[in-house]
Amino acid sequence: MKTYKWIAVLVIFLTAFSLNTSAKSRHKDKAQIAYNQGNYETALALWKKSIAKYEKRNKGAQCPFYTKAGMAALKLGKDEEARNLFGKAIYSASVSPEAFIELARLYRKINNLSLEIDALEKYVKKYPTGKDITPMRERLFATYVESENWQEALNLWSKLPAVFRDNTTNETALLKVNIALGKTEACNRLAAEILKSDPKNISALSWEAKKYFWLAENRYQAELKAYNKNKTNSQYAELLRAFKVVTINFKKSLVYFRRLFPLQHTSENALFIGNTYARLSSPSKAKYYHNLANKLKKERK
Fold this sequence. Notes:
Blueprint: H1 2-36, H2 40-56, H3 66-75, H4 79-89, H5 97-109, H6 113-126, H7 133-146, H8 150-157, H9 162-165, H10 168-180, H11 184-197, H12 202-229, H13 233-260, H14 267-279, H15 283-300
């Protein structure tokens, strides 16, 4: 007799549990149906109601509705609410690639670079083979350059697709990275490659112009110092030989600076040109560009 009573109790319990589960399922279905039909306000309200129940029991990490609610909020143009929901989603049972993607996009929309980078990095780490891994890595590279995280940008470069790496704009960004990291050989190679496809590329022209200027100027100063220290005939002969090489490099520098100046009309470039003409014994041209440099500097202020 007791066995029958226990069976009856069990049946009642299972029936009640089934009904409760069924009710929850219907509640979930209503939200999804509303969303699918474009009733985003209704869907958001229903999902938020479910979320509140999880959070009330301190079980937010187990809540499977944050991403869904975030998408509904996004459809309604409620960006701040969507950011909040996706922010919770990435640490919950409702975590999905979409949550990271939309969160990064929303942070980009409000120019919050650090939090955008955080969302991008989390996606790249969690979904290395995800269908959106390529655009997410590409955007991450751009944010690293923008935020001057030079080494991180360089480390990521090799993981980017060839079509991205062959793009002149992206090569220019990589040139900027290598300049910041002091990688001279890489800069020389990149600048040459960039100028083949884009002869008016400001970054590459600037690199080449300054490279030859400082090659010449540093050699000029070193040889002059050596001669002043030891004024012998042999040292003077060495000075003259060095000046021939120095002159060649100053002239190369001038070629690039004259191509660069119309594109980047700055006091710094004018000053470089003036100094170069001074070294090439063209005082009138040197004076003209030195005066122009001062004028441009004043105008900038």
